Structure formats: structure tokens, C-alpha cells
Amino acid sequence: LIFEIELVACRPRKGSTMGSVSDERVRLEELKKQREAAAALKDEEKKKREEAKAAAAAKIQAKLEAKKGKGKGKSK
């Protein structure tokens, strides 16, 4: 949606030269590439956080299982 708004906002005025039109097109393509790179970086960071959460959850689960096993051993 934002990109579409920028396209409308950056539409060349009547009487613009072809050079300025192509400059705008290049600028918009650069903005698009920057957005895609930022989105990819954000997705990668999200994936790393999810992996860290899963590892922490597995570690906590292992500790709980170990404590559960010790408790059963003492009661015998």
C-alpha cells in the first residue's frame, strides 16, 4: 500500500522531461530494493528469535524432566 501511494505521489508532472521520469523510476526501484532487504532481515531476525525460544523451551523441559526423575527416585 505504501509503495502504491509513493508511485502515485511520485508520478511525473505534465511536461516533465524523460530524464526526470527515469530518475524517479530508478529512485522507486531503489526504495523497493531497500524495503525488500529490510523485510528479509526482519524475517531472519524473527526466525533466530523463534529458534532461541525453542532451544530455551527444550532446555527448561529437560530440567523439569530431570527434577521429576530425581523426585521419583527419592520416594522409593
Automatic annotation (TrEMBL):
Keyword terms, alphabetized: Coiled coil
Residue runs in coiled coils: 21-61
Keyword flag Coiled coil: yes
Superkingdom of source: Eukaryota
Protein name, UniProt field: Uncharacterized protein
Lineage: Eukaryota, Viridiplantae, Streptophyta, Embryophyta, Tracheophyta
